[in-house]
Amino acid sequence: MPAVTIQNVSKAFGDNIVLQNFSEVFHEGEFVTLLGPSGCGKTTMLRMIAGFERPTTGEIYIGDTLVSGDKSFVPPEKRNMGMVFQSYAVWPHMDVFHNVAYPLTIKRVSKAEVERRVARVLDIVHLGQYAQRYPNQLSGGQQQRVALARALVAEPMLLLLDEPLSNLDAKLRESMRFEIKEIQQSLGIAVVYVTHDQTEAMAMSDRIFLINRGVVQQSGSPEEIYNQPSNQFVADFLGKVEFLKGTAEPGRIHLLEVDQYLPYAGDRRGPVEVAVRPQNISLLPAGGEGLHGTVDRKYYLGDTTDWRIRLGQLSLRVITDGRAYGSYAPGDAVTLRMEDFHVFEDDGSLLEHLKIRT
Q1: d(Cα 19, Cα 216) in Å, to the nearest integer?
Q2: Cα–Cα distance, 243 to 226 (Å, whole number)
Q3: Residues sharing a CB contact under 8 Å with residue 35, sequence separation 6 or more, in sequence order
Q4: pLDDT tens-digit profile of 334-343?
Q5: Given pLDDT bands bounded at 50, 70 and 90, which one contains residue 165?
Q6: What is the distance between the alpha carbons of residues 97 and 131, in angstroms, rounded to a whole number?
Q7: What is the C-alpha separation between 23 and 21, in angstroms, rounded?
Q8: Mean per-residue pLDDT, 167-192
Q9: Where are the alpha helices (DSSP H) in 125-246?
Q10: pLDDT tens, position by position, 102-155
Q11: What's the pLDDT at 349?
Q12: What is the DSSP string of 84-97?
């Protein structure tokens, strides 16, 4: 059964169109992420699902219920959903128990049922022992879990999360990604999650919708979008990537900024742009087939080494295992072999995904 159905939804504020012709079905138990840069329309879509904004055109269903349309609108409090915002929005004068119990209290749920459901949800978010504490006695991550518990206590069919981890430090943000995903899987609840952080999207999502300037550029699993980007924007936004301008010729691509050649098995001829992820470039001793350059700089990051290799006027980024840090020094001649790359049209659309077996 679908949790959310969106049919031809667009949203404009005056002459400014912020979202265009969004149509999709989000399923029960699915973790969907709306990903994109600031101002792309992702939060507007979430707010329309929540009922805080009305679509300019189109319809939105939650389950089988039409909640937004030309002649129908269900207010947020009647949409059977929970929502967690970027700010924790926990009440400082209430302890954890009463913060979480609030949605049930205003519905006049019996005291015994409130106690049962609050205890259950606090156990789910690992805050059972903190029920009597106040927000100023909790860490940022614990306060965010209070907000999550409050959204879950009414047992909604849909959970909406709007950049909920952006106020946390990097280490806590990483651990909370996995906690939220585990909670979602244990409850089997549908989640629509908004973020501009591609690492969050990759780690948590069943499907990602990558949006730019109000238009969905690509949707699919993290693996699909990362490995098969539909255009240059997608390739650039999701993960690290290097772009090289070239001309496709029979059996090779002439890389113009480097004035060297890349083996090419495709049929395209003429101007292209090659996209390669830094971790898909092998760094080898000088000599043999490949691109020839010199080590410019290197950065030791523990598990990886981040290199800058000078190829003519171009500095190309290469990422290798951290243990390779001592293999080369600045000024050393090296050979680069691109083992997995994409070829794009001048307009940014994908032509081919090529792998060179070595």
Answers
A1: 9
A2: 15
A3: 42, 195, 196, 198, 201, 208, 209, 210, 211, 237, 238
A4: 999 998 899 9
A5: confident
A6: 5
A7: 6
A8: 87
A9: 140-152, 170-187, 198-204, 222-227, 232-237
A10: 999 888 889 999 999 999 999 988 899 999 999 999 988 889 889 999 999 988
A11: 65
A12: E-SS----TTS-HH
Q: Counting beta carbons within 10 angstroms of the beta carbon of residue 215, is it exposed (0 to 12), middle (13 to 18) or buried (19 or more)?
A: middle
Q: Pick from 158, 165, 232, 155: which is nearest to 196 by CA?
A: 165
Q: Which residue is listed with tokens 């390739």? A: 235
Q: How confident is the model at residue 347 (pLDDT cuts 50, 70, 90)?
A: low
**Alpha-carbon gap, residue 198 to 191, rounded angstroms:** 17
The secondary structure of 290-305 as a DSSP string is SEEEEEEEEEE-SSEE
| pLDDT range class, residue 285, cuts 50, 70, 90 | very high
Burial class (CB in 10 A: 0-12, 13-18, 19+), 191: buried
pTM for this predicted structure: 0.89
Q: Tokens in use for 346?
A: 């001048």
Query: Quick one: tokens of 58?
Result: 């189109």
The position carrying tokens 């269903």 is 61
Sequence-distant (≥ 6) Cβ neighbours of residue 273 within 8 angstroms: 232, 243, 244, 245, 246, 343, 344, 345, 346, 348
Residue 75, SS3 per DSSP: coil
Q: Alpha helix locations (H) across the chain?
A: 42-50, 96-105, 111-124, 140-152, 170-187, 198-204, 222-227, 232-237
Exposed, middle or buried: residue 345 (CB in 10 Å: 0-12, 13-18, 19+)? middle
The helix (H) or strand (E) run that includes residue 250 is: none
Q: Given a cut of 70, is residue 357 above it in pLDDT?
A: no
CA dist., res. 122 & res. 57, Å (int): 40
Distance of CA 287 to the CA centre of its chain: 40
Q: Please give the Cα distance from 51 to 162 (Å, whole number).
A: 14
Band the pLDDT of 288: cuts 50, 70, 90: confident
Q: What percent of the chain has pLDDT over 70?
A: 96
d(CA 311, CA 64): 58
